């Protein structure tokens, strides 16, 4: 009973005796049940089954036993009536085991029988020593024949028996000793000599000789194995030895590990690899034999592998150094890859060890990648690849680096290139118009490179975006932005979007159109597999891409200003290609920048919608009143605050139009009291019917153009109107008049002729109707002047955005101070930059100026300890 | 040559019919701008013209009239403030907004 149980019993005893008894009984019970399977009752069936199986066993046992010509004492006499004790001595220890095992003790059933022994001879009296010598002589002779590779003209069986008998006589030890000694002399002698003869020659020859010797030795071992099988099995096996081990060890210790030979042999194998590396023909059979030999001798990991790796290392190091010095980056990557591939292929073809493969790979990677990292992530050559858009080369480079998880090390070079290339595009003042297209092309190329070459590595993806963000937000006061530090990309993106929305799918530049790109980059664009694109999807796609760029821009104010201006123009001139596209763009901007950003833009759409309703109700009313309208009038009424500000240009409106406009204004005022209308005639456009000497045309012109054209009504073709007269009659200020006249007399389509001819309008010029005006089309648009943004407008927009930014900055500063009450200068500047980032930040000196301005206006004050405090 | 105008697409911007430099007597913002609470001017933040010919941003005058001390008087001339009826009817945004 365990102490545990005793303790338990002790515990129980405190309560009562009975419980102890109970405890014991309850403890015994499980014991009983535990031993149950061992009880006689359950043993019985086991026993019962054995007699049934037993009868065949003795016979079987006898047949094995008979091989040893040995009768069992207790054994099954009835079956074997005659026993030949044979000639072999019977004191073999092995026999005992075998017989006893196979003799079950159930011969009781058989009755006593007489045992007859035939040919009985007393135990042989031959001295075992003499027997050994005799037998060994034969064996020795046979071995000599085998070693000399002579003809086997003796019975191997006989020899086997001899050896067996020697062993049975308990002289296995001597037999083994003799055999080993014999083998040793042979291996040390002739066999070694055959190899040593080659010492003067190449390593490979030494190896070849060794292999030759090895093969011979192996063949001879076959015989030895046969002859000494019994020795091997019965004597050596129990001692955890084997004949094969001993003989192989002999070869190894004498030939392979011979001081002179060892290196030569191993080097021979390594030389074979070197030959293969040099691109010459490799004796494949010989190499695989050598490898097999190393394996069999168990010297592979100990001798061959380290040596081979050592050689490989020097080779790989040299070739890596050489190639990295000589070759360009893509070539180097290619050769590095092919080197690794061929090395690994060799390992696999010859089934070298897994450990070799692993070590070799590590070695290769270490030398080809890790140590050559500076070469691989080299800024200049990497930049060249990016420049060439060499997707495949980059892919190879990245996979190579990624073997060592070094792919992310391309990051600095990658970012640097993007920044440089991007900055060059952004600040290329000559090709401002192509900026967005170039940026889009670049973005797409980089995206492809990222997807395919860089396997969508997240580190490099971040780098890509970061770099884009950096250069897109670089600002420089330049002529392009009228010396404001507005972001030019913001403006150009707005203009590009305008072009898309005006022109629809037709406006998509050829190099970005999916149709042209399709055949080239089918695989590249795996996520856009649709083959057919309708125009809307195409435009939407383009918008998405542009928006990708837009996302990088911090100063969204510039974009907003230009987008609004362009949108206004599109809406008022009804130049949108598709209302759906407009709306989807608006939705995109809303998700991108929030509702506050698009509130004004939405109001613009609403105004146009309202105006349309207003016009239809106005027309209905006039119809009811049976009023006749000489002119089909449409008015767009805008809420001034949501639209870009337009200057009111003074102009004398022709009487017929004036009356129509006045009628509408009266109607509007009656409907919406407390409101009045400011006419923006510079935005009006109209259709006119014109009878030219060479045919009737319908012209779509701006209001100013129409007013000028009306002045030429009914004039003979040779009557000149001079500039001064036109100026008085139209009431236009000179810049507007100049623009209008230029568009009518100096553009591609010229309904007027200027005298004298020339590009620029001078106050001394006169104008006549162009009698030869003609055009294949009936309806002609000549109001492009109105659509185009003038330099002055552009400048004005930029300056306004810049000025607005000052106000926004001031507002931000006040908000910050309201929240913080007191704040240090540097903190305030940092906070301000953070807050205004989305709309566009001022530089630090600009922020400082605005702080000063606010101090002047007494919004804040400087305190003694250098803090700013808010003045409530 | 003979030119006739067939179709004229005019553009006009509407604004409150007030003198340009006048401001709301309560918030001191221009009439064309918003009251101090609104973000977007225009229909969302209309004007209200009283019988006394003083006009304010609707939101401004309402919050004034809601105060006890105001006694529903025009803050400018202390006459009881009533919006001009005919206008209250025609202005879609403020038909029933006259404080009674």
TrEMBL record, chain A:
SMART domains: CULLIN, Cullin_Nedd8. PROSITE patterns: CULLIN_2. InterPro entries: Cullin, Cullin-like_AB, Cullin_homology, Cullin_homology_sf, Cullin_N, Cullin_neddylation_domain, Cullin_repeat-like_dom_sf, WH-like_DNA-bd_sf. One of its GO terms (molecular function) is ubiquitin protein ligase binding. GO terms for biological process: ubiquitin-dependent protein catabolic process. Gene3D superfamilies: Cullin Repeats (1.20.1310.10), Cullin, Chain C, Domain 2 (3.30.230.130), Winged helix-like DNA-binding domain superfamily/Winged helix DNA-binding domain (1.10.10.10). Residues 1-109 are annotated as: Disordered. Coiled coil: none annotated. Residues 488-745 form the Cullin family profile domain. Pfam families: Cullin, Cullin_AB, Cullin_Nedd8. Residues 24-42 have a biased composition (Polar residues). It comes from the Eukaryota. Keywords: Isopeptide bond, Ubl conjugation. PANTHER family: CULLIN. Belongs to the cullin family. This is Cullin-domain-containing protein. It comes from Bimuria novae-zelandiae CBS 107.79.
From TrEMBL, chain B:
Pfam families: zf-ANAPC11. GO terms for molecular function: cullin family protein binding; ubiquitin protein ligase activity; zinc ion binding. It comes from the Eukaryota. Keywords: Cell cycle, Cell division, Metal-binding, Mitosis, Nucleus, Ubl conjugation pathway, Zinc, Zinc-finger. It is found in: Nucleus. The keyword Protease does not apply. InterPro entries: RING-box_E3_Ubiquitin_Ligase, RING-H2_APC11, Znf_RING, Znf_RING/FYVE/PHD. GO terms for cellular component: anaphase-promoting complex. Residues 24-78 form the RING-type domain. GO terms for biological process: anaphase-promoting complex-dependent catabolic process; cell division. Coiled coil: none annotated. Pathway: Protein modification; protein ubiquitination. Belongs to the RING-box family. This is Anaphase-promoting complex subunit 11.
């Amino acid at each position: 009973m365990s102490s545990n149980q005793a303790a338990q019993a002790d515990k129980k005893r405190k309560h009562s005796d009975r419980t102890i008894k109970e405890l014991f009984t309850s403890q015994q019970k499980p014991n009983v049940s535990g031993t149950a399977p061992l009880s006689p009752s359950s043993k019985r069936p086991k026993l019962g089954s054995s007699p049934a199986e037993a009868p065949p066993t003795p016979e079987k046992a006898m047949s094995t036993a008979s091989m040893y010509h040995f009768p069992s004492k207790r054994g099954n006499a009835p079956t074997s009536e005659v026993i030949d004790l044979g000639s072999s001595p019977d004191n073999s220890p092995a026999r005992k085991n075998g017989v006893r095992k196979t003799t079950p003790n159930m011969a009781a059933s058989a009755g006593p029988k007489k045992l007859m022994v035939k040919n009985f001879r007393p135990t042989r009296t031959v001295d075992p020593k003499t027997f050994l010598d005799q037998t060994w002589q034969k064996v020795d002779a046979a071995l000599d024949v085998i070693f000399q590779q002579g003809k086997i003209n003796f019975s191997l069986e006989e020899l086997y028996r001899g050896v067996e008998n020697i062993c049975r006589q308990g002289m296995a030890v001597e037999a083994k000793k003799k055999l080993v000694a014999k083998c040793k002399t042979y291996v040390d002698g002739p066999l070694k000599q055959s190899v040593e003869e080659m010492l003067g020659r190449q390593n490979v020859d030494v190896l070849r000789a060794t292999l030759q010797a090895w093969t011979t030795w192996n063949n001879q071992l076959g015989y030895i194995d046969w002859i000494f099988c019994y020795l091997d099995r019965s004597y050596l096996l129990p001692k955890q030895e084997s004949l094969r081990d001993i003989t192989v060890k002999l070869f190894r210790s004498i030939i392979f590990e011979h001081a002179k030979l060892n290196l030569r042999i191993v080097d021979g194998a390594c030389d074979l690899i070197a030959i293969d590396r040099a691109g010459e023909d490799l004796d494949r059979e010989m190499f695989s034999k050598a490898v097999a030999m190393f394996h069999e001798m168990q010297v592979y990991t100990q001798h061959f592998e380290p040596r081979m790796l050592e050689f490989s290392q020097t080779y790989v190091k040299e070739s890596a150094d050489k190639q990295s010095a000589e070759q360009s980056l893509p070539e180097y990557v290619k050769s590095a890859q092919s080197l690794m591939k061929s090395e690994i292929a060799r390992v696999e073809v010859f089934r070298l060890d897994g450990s070799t493969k692993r070590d070799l790979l590590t070695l290769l990677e270490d030398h080809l990648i890790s140590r050559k990292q500076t070469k691989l992530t080299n800024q200049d050559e990497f930049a060249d690849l990016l420049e060439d858009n060499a997707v495949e080369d980059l892919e190879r480079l990245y996979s190579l680096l990624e073997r060592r998880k070094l792919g992310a090390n391309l990051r600095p070079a990658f970012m640097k290139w993007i920044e440089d290339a991007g900055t060059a595009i952004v600040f290329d003042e000559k090709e401002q118009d192509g900026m967005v297209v170039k940026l889009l092309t670049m973005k797409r190329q980089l995206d492809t490179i990222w997807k395919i070459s860089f396997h969508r590595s997240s580190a490099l993806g971040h780098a890509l975006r970061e770099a884009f963000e950096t250069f897109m937000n670089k600002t420089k006061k330049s002529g392009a932005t009228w010396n404001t530090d507005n972001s030019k990309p913001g403006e150009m993106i707005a203009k590009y979007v305008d072009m898309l929305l005006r022109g629809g799918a037709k406006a998509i530049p050829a190099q970005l159109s999916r149709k042209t790109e399709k055949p080239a980059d089918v695989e590249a664009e795996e996520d856009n597999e649709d083959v057919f694109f309708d125009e809307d999807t195409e435009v939407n796609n383009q918008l998405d891409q542009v928006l990708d760029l837009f996302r990088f821009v911090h100063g969204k104010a510039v974009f907003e200003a230009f987008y609004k201006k362009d949108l206004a123009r599109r809406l008022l001139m009804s130049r949108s290609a598709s209302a759906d596209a407009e709306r989807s763009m608006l939705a995109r901007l809303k998700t991108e920048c929030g509702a506050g950003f698009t509130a004004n833009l939405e109001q613009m759409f609403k105004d146009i919608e309202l105006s349309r309703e207003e016009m239809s109700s106005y027309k209905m009313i006039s119809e009811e009143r049976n009023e006749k309208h000489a002119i089909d009038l449409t008015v767009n009424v805008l809420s001034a605050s949501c639209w870009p500000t337009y200057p009111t240009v003074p102009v004398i409106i022709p009487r017929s139009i004036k009356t129509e406009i006045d009628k509408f204004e009266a109607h509007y005022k009656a409907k919406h009291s407390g409101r009045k209308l400011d006419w923006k005639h510079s935005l009006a456009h109209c259709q006119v019917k014109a009878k030219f000497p060479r045919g009737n045309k319908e012209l779509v012109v701006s209001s100013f153009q129409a007013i000028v054209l009306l002045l030429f009504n009914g004039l003979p073709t040779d009557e000149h109107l001079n500039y001064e007269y036109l100026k008085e009659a139209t009431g236009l200020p000179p810049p507007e008049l100049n623009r209008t006249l230029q568009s009518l007399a100096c553009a591609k389509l010229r309904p007027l002729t200027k005298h004298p001819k020339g590009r620029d309008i001078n106050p001394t010029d006169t104008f006549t109707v162009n009698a030869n005006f003609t055009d294949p089309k009936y309806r002609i648009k000549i109001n492009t002047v109105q659509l185009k943004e003038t330099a002055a407008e552009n400048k004005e927009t930029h300056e306004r955005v810049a000025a607005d930014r000052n106000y926004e900055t001031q507002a931000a500063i006040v908000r910050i101070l309201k929240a913080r009450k007191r704040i240090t200068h540097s903190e305030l500047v940092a906070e301000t930059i953070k807050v205004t980032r989305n709309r566009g930040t001022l530089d630090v000196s600009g922020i400082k100026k605005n702080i000063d301005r606010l101090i002047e206006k007494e919004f804040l004050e400087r305190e003694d300890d250098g803090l700013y405090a808010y003045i409530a | 040559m003979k030119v006739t105008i067939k179709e004229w697409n005019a553009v006009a911007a509407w604004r409150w019919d007030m003198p340009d430099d006048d401001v709301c007597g309560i918030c001191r913002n221009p009439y064309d701008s918003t009251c101090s609470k609104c973000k977007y001017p225009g229909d969302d933040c209309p004007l209200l013209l009283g019988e006394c010919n003083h006009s304010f941003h609707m939101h401004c005058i309402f919050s004034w009239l809601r105060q006890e001390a105001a006694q529903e008087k025009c803050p400018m001339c202390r006459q009881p403030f009533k919006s001009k009826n005919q206008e209250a009817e025609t202005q879609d945004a403020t038909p029933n907004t006259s404080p009674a």
